[in-house]
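Final report, closing paragraph on structural work. Over the funding period we assembled a curated collection of sequence-structure pairs, and we close with a single example.
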Amino acid sequence: MIEYPQTGPSRPLDPLLDAALGPRPERVPLDVERLESVDCGSYVREKVSYAVTADQRVSAYVCVPKGADGPLPAVFCHHQHAGQFHLGKSEVVGLAGHPDQAYARELAERGFVTIAPDAIGFEERNWSPDGRSNVCWFELSSRLVRGRTLLASCLHEVSVALDHLVSRPEVDPTRLGFIGHSYGGRTALWAPAFDHRITASVSHCGCIPYRYSLTHDTGVQAEFVLPGFAAAHDLEDVLARYGPASLLISATSDDRWSRGAAELFAGARRLLGDRVELAMYEAGHVFTAPMRERAYAFLRQRC
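Its predicted structure, as stored:
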């Protein structure tokens, strides 16, 4: 039986967070290009491209509900990992992959504007010869040797995607949400700490603290490697940095990436009060329709 360390929440320490994260890329003008527009019935799915750094662009799908009376809430929809590097934004809008991952499409059908970019190393941003190999450890190591981290780039790109959302007339800039499963669920814990425009975030099957990640069946994903951070600190320090955001920790009983969910929730309650909720399910590493409906209701209420 695997034993886990029984450590409590660590104290907030912003300087350590900033030092571990390292510098983030500088903001540049978005320079948005609309590449396509597809009528999907109740919403329009656009494919857009925008600049995230001076020499790099990202493509994303933006789903916009039809017939709105005024600006709508908007949600960043982060795709999963699953070792499927050929998938990214296309899965969360329902064009490929597993239908249970199509939450950007489902939220658009429910009246949210959604944005779904490819994360670094996935889909159109996978530069391996076969388009399917793991390039994320290169993306990490090539930053570490320059005193940077992959997570800093990832969080920067979340903020840039939100910049695009708030620039759109269809979006209410005071009602911005975030949702993700697995890899996306881990990012959902970090994003509201570094962009206080996020008012509600859903972390599904991705809430494992660092203190429970040092086992052979879990480990630390490349995107969340921060030198020295876990020596005395953990996700509670990240939650302590939240602005106004509410958080839903959505977890399952038979999922290694959900380990420590109840403990993290207890720490989050001390930090965020009734702005945090916990949804626990008897299931594996899945995002079923009832789980998604619970997440959508949270976003509807809190976003």
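Confidence is low (pLDDT under 50) at residues 1-12. Residues 83 and 134 are 8 Å apart (CA to CA). We thank the funder for supporting this effort.
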